[in-house]
Amino acid sequence: SRWGSERPEVAMADKRRSVKVYALNDDQRWDDLGRGHVSSTYVERLQGIALLVHSESNGTLILESKINPNTPYQKQQETLIVWTEAENHGMAISFQDAASCHEIWKAICQVQGKDPSVEITQDLLDESEEEQFEDSPEIFELLDLPNCELGQLAQIAEVVTSALTSSICKERLALVLENEDYVKKLLQLFHTCEDLEDTEGLYHLHEIVKGILLLNKTALLEVMFSDECIMDVVGCLEYDPALAQPKRHREFLTQNAKFKEVIPITNCELRQKIHQTYRVQYIHNILVPIPSMFEDDFLSTLTTFIFLNKVEIVSMLQEDDKFLDEVFSQLRDKTTDDDKRRELLFFFKEFCAFSQTLQPQSKDALFKTLTRLGILPTLKIVMGTSDFQIRAAATDIFTYLVEYSPSMIREYIMEEAQQSEDDNLFINLVIEQMIGDTDPELGGAVHVMELLCSLLDPDNMMATSNKCGRSEFLSFFYKYCIHNIIAPLLSTTSEDICEEGNIVGSDKNNKNYLNDYQTAQLLALILELLTFCVQHHTYYIKNCILSKDLLRRVLILMNSKHTFLLLCAVRFMRRMIGLKDELYNCYIIKGNLFEPIVNALLDNGTRYNMLNSAVIELFEYIRVENIKSLIAHIVEKFYETLESIDYVQTFKGLKIKYEQEKEQQSQIGKNLHSILYSKIFFGSVSVLEEKEEVSFKENIEEGEAVMPPLESEIQDQYDKVLETKKTEEDENLDLPQRASSGGFKFTSSHSAGAGNGADNPNDSSMVGLVDCSDDEEKDKEDETSPRKRPHLSL
What we know:
Elements: H1 2-16, E1 18-24, E2 30-43, E3 48-55, E4 61-66, E5 73-76, E6 80-86, E7 89-95, H2 98-112, H3 129-135, H4 137-143, H5 153-163, H6 167-179, H7 182-196, H8 199-214, H9 218-224, H10 230-238, H11 249-256, H12 268-287, H13 300-319, H14 321-332, H15 338-355, H16 360-373, H17 375-383, H18 388-404, H19 406-419, H20 426-435, H21 443-456, H22 467-480, H23 482-493, H24 508-515, H25 517-536, H26 538-548, H27 550-556, H28 563-578, H29 582-590, H30 595-604, H31 610-625, H32 628-642, H33 650-702, H34 711-730, E8 737-738, E9 744-745, H35 761-766, H36 773-781
Antiparallel strand pairs: 1-2, 1-7, 2-3, 3-4, 5-6, 6-7, 8-9
C-alpha cells in the first residue's frame, strides 16, 4: 500500500522530468534514442536503484540503467548527465530544465555516497576542484597543452578533437587558448608548414582550426576573424584531408571576390566590418562542415557573430543620411549610366537583405527612413529602363517592401494615381515586368505574381483605416490595371474566335503559339492570378469576366498540348462554378461553355490522369451541390455523349437529379393547375352569385325574371385572365423560365430547346396568375446581389 500511495507522486514527477536519451556509437557519434520521462526507482531484478526512462509517446522503456557505486557520472552545463555503461559505451541524458537534472543528480550521488555539489562522482570526497581535474587523465592533458611546435601538431590536434565530446573539456580548452594567445602561434606555424610543404602538418592544422571554431566561443572567434588572422584561418581550412587537392579559397577571396564601393565609404570601421562579414559568411557556408545532430548548437556563436555584424552594418548606413541620400540621388539622375545604376541597385538589394535581420522596431525606423528618401518613386524610375538586370534588381527590392508593408505600397499606388496625368503607373510597370520576363522558366514572373496576390489579398487590407480604402484600391486596380494582366490572354486567343459562338475553331499558327512552352507558362500564371481574383474579388472580377467574355477566351486554351495549361483553365471555371452564382451559371449556359470541357474529357480517352480527375470533380461538384440550372443544361446537351462513361457514377447521378427535378416540377404544375382552377371557378361563382342577388332584387322590383349564369361564361372569364397574364410574360424575353420538364428556356440562339415547352398546356396554366409585385420589390433591394433565384411559376 505504501508503494501504491506514492505512484501518483512518481507520475507527477515524470511529467516534469522530460529528457532526451543519447548513446555513443562505434563512430564516436551520439545517437538519439528518443524523448521520455526519467525517474530513479528501485528495481528488484537489478537489486538496486536504477535510472528508468519511459517514452512520452507510447510509454515503452527507452533506458534502464542501474546506478553502480563505482561508475563515474558527470554533470555538465546544469542540464546534462554523462556516464559510461561499459567499455567505450557512453550514455547521456539531456534535461529540459536544471531543476529536474539536479533531482536525478542527487539520487545518483545518494547511491554513491557523494556530495550533490560535485560535478564528477569519482574519488572527490577529500580533494579540491583543481586536484579533481588533475586526477582525470583527459582533463590533465587539456590543461597541459603541448608547446606550439611543428613536432607537437599531431598531439595538439588529438587534444582539441577529444575536447569536443565534453562541455567541461571545451570550457577548459577555450580558457587555455584565450589566455596563452595560442591561436596566433598556431597560425604562425601554418606559414611555416606551407613554406616547408609539410602536408601532414597542414592536415593537423585543419583539424585544430576546425575544432577551435566548434568550441563556440565568441572571444576566440574575434581573434580568428580579425584582419590579422582571418586569411590564415581560411588557409588552414583549405587543407582538408578528405580532399585530393586543397581548394584555393584564399585566391578566390582576394582576387575573384572584389569589393566595389558604388558610393565612397569614408567610415573605415564600416568598410572593415563589411569585409569581415563577407569572409566570415564564406567560412560558415563553404568551409565549415555541418555539425551532427548532437552538435546542432556548436555553430550557434558563429551564426550570431554574422547576425550581429549585419545589424551593425545596417545601423551604421542608416545613421549616415548623406550616404543613402546620395544613393537615391544617383539612381534618380537621368545622366547616370546603366552600369553605375546597376551597381547601385545591387548594393541596395544587399542592404535590404541585411535589413531582414533587424528587430521589428529597428526595421520600422529603417523603412520610414527609406520612404522619406523616396524609395518607391526611385524604383518606378529604374523599372522603366530597358536593362533587364536593373529591372530584376528593382523587383527584388520591391519584394522586400511588399513583405514589410503591403498597405504602404497600396497607399503610394493610390496617391500616384491621383497625382499622375499619364497611364505610366508604378503597378503597371510591375505587371509588365511579369509579362516581359525572358527567363525560360519564368522565375521572376512567378515571383511578381506572388507579389500581386499579396497586394490584392483582402486579408492584407484589414488594417486599412476604413472599409472604403479597400474598395477604392480594388476599383482602381480593375479600372487601370486588370487589362494589362489579361492582355496576353486576349491577344493569344483573339484569332481563334472565327465567329460568334465558335470555341473550338483555331488558326494553325495560333495553335502553335499556344503550344509554345514559355507562352503556356505565362498564360498559366495569368490564370492562376485570375483564379485568385475570382475567389477573393467576387463583385469586381465578375464585371470583367462578363464584359470581356473572359471564360470563353480561357477555354480556348483547352486546345493547347500542355496539360498544366488545361488544368489551369479547368480550375478557373471550377472556381467560378464554386461560387454558385446564377449570373455565372446563365453566362455558362447561354455560351455553351461546357463544350470544350466535355471535348477535353473525351479527347483524354481512358487515361487516368490529373486532367481526367479535374473534369470529373467539376461535374461531381455540380451533382453534389445540386446546381439545378447547370444539371439541366448538362443532361439535355451532353448526356448522350457522356452516358458511356461508366467508371464513375457522376453522369448517371446527374441524370437522376435531372429526372427527379423534372418529376417534382411536373407534379407541382399539376397541383397548382388544379388549385388555381378551383379558386378561379369558385371565385367567379361567388361574384356571379352576388350579381345575381342584386339583379334578382332589382328584377323583383322591376318585375323581371332572373337567369342563372352559363358555364361558358365562367370559362371565358378564366381564359381572358390567362391570356392577359401570358401577354405580360411574353414581354420579358431575356429572363430564363423553368419549364415543366425541369429545364430553362433561353431566348438566345445558344439555348438548347428554347421552344420545347411552347406546346405544353401545363406551362400556360402554371404561369397564369402570378403576382410578381413582391418579386420586383425584392429585385430592387437585391440589385447588387450576384445571385438571383429563378421565380417559381405558380
